[in-house]
Amino acid sequence: MRKICIMFSIVTILLSGASFAEMGNVFSDISETHWAKSSVDHLYGLEIISGYPDGTFKPENNVKINEFILLTIKSLGYHFESMSADWAKPYIDKAIELGIIENKEFPQYTADITREQMASIVVNALSLNEIRPSNAMDLYVRYDMKDYHLVDDYYKQNVIDSYKYGIVKGYPDGTFNPSGLAKRSEASRVLVTMLKAEERLPYENVEAKSTLMPEWYKGEDGKDTTRMVKFYAPIFNGEPVNELAEIGEHLVNVQDQGKGYLELGYNTFSQTYNALGYRSKAFYDGIFDAPTLMEQSFLYSERRDFSFKVTPMELAHKYRPYSMTLWKKSEHMEANETYEHYFLTRYEAQIKPIFEILFEDESDKAWSYFMTGIKHTGEWSKIEETINGRTFYIGYSKSGITLSFSLKQ
Q1: Rounded to whole angstroms, how far apart are CA atoms 121 and 128?
Q2: Residue 209 vs residues 136, 206, 258, 362, 367: alpha-carbon distances, Å
Q3: CA of residue 178 relative to chain centroid, distance
Q4: C-alpha angle 47/48/53, rounded to 5°?
Q5: What is the value of pTM for the model shown?
Q6: How far apart are the first and last CA of the chain?
Q7: Residue whose C-alpha is closest to residue 12's, from 93, 92, 125
Q8: CA-based angle 364:370:371, to the nearest 5?
Q9: CA of 130: how far to CAs of 127, 199, 253, 316, 318, in Å?
Q10: Tens place of pLDDT per residue across the chain (409 aa)
Q11: Nearest to residue 248, comparing CAs of 320, 306, 322?
Q12: Is residue 401 within 8 Å of 318, Cβ to Cβ?
């Protein structure tokens, strides 16, 4: 994988730095005004593509599957000399080795490549070096692609990802034409956008709000770390649920206010995000001073005051997608401090605005029920009401609180 990344970087640097302004017309049938000229010239300069003996490029000719595989593998920095009559075999073998295509995926490598096949190959190649986009936008892409139902099931996800990457996209009429045959000019443009991120036009939906959220992953050193990835409002009943992005943005903005600290985490696969409350950043950071992973894991749970979770996959649930579990840990409080004072001092500015976003004019009512649970020192009790069109449920006792809200009905 490291070798691939290095080669990919070298090709990208060459491609970015190459200047073809003075090349003129390399091919007699590619004019100065041809829409694909710059892409063809770039790839020609890198010796990735070539023309025909008569000096033409034939931009409207169809591309064969084996030709596009060869061009893709060359774009990743690999160059082979075939030792047999099958000039494409080493490139096909490398594509299979890298997982860009599957063995026996294509009955005939000499067949013309379709747009869905081209999209799949280039997305798999790109994902060797770049994180796949979040699937939060998948439904938006599916709704906007008028002929999505015509895409082969095997290629559906990669076609969607090609939209999100901004590489192989649809036409002005909203169609993708998955079984349409790719031309040489089109293939050239696709390969250049694979190599040059600045020339891509990633799919966007102006009605859907988004925010950057931290996602945990394993770094090159094997340690857990975070990167900021985009969370898009999910779609429900044909409309974006923008409040989920608004709440996520709020949590990022108030993560560390010098009092209570929120450890945030986003899962791009499930689109779920959560906020774990710790009484201070220093208190949270102290977890990692423990000498073993087992002790760190224990402290990670033991020092936690609450977990607030947002689950977009449960948008239709009566008591979701918002849920919170709070543990009243007296050992976290100062001497003679009530739990109400402990919680409000550290977390009010972080949690109360969530109530204001969701319950609007009735937020005081919802917050008062929450405060009832915070103050409660007796046995288990619960309240369930409809507030601002949402199911509001709270169960509480002297030891903790469970809380859940639905979408507005």
Answers
A1: 11
A2: 11, 7, 28, 24, 26
A3: 23
A4: 70
A5: 0.68
A6: 48
A7: 125
A8: 85
A9: 5, 15, 27, 33, 38
A10: 444 443 433 333 333 333 334 445 788 888 888 988 888 888 988 889 888 889 889 989 999 999 999 999 999 999 998 777 889 999 999 999 999 999 999 999 999 999 999 999 999 999 999 988 877 788 889 988 999 999 999 999 999 999 999 998 889 999 999 999 999 999 999 999 999 999 999 988 888 898 999 988 777 777 778 888 888 898 898 889 999 999 999 999 999 987 899 999 998 878 899 999 999 999 999 999 999 999 999 999 999 999 999 999 999 999 999 999 999 999 999 888 999 999 999 999 999 999 999 999 999 999 999 999 999 999 999 999 999 999 999 999 999 999 999 999 8
A11: 322
A12: no
How far is residue 145 from each of residues 115, 177, 250, measured CA to CA in Å?
14, 10, 32
Beta strand ranges found along 219-357 (DSSP E):
224-232, 235-236, 239-240, 261-267, 272-278, 306-310, 321-327
Instruction: Dihedral sign for Cα 93, 94, 95, 96, please.
Output: positive
Q: What is the dihedral sign for C-alpha 96, 102, 107, 113?
A: negative
**3-class secondary structure, 58:** coil
CA 69/CA 117 separation, integer angstroms: 10
Q: Is 160 helix (H, G, I), strand (E, B) or coil?
A: helix
Give Rg (Cα) of the chain.
27
Closest CA to 121 of 95, 152, 103: 95
The secondary structure of residue 184, as a DSSP letter, is H
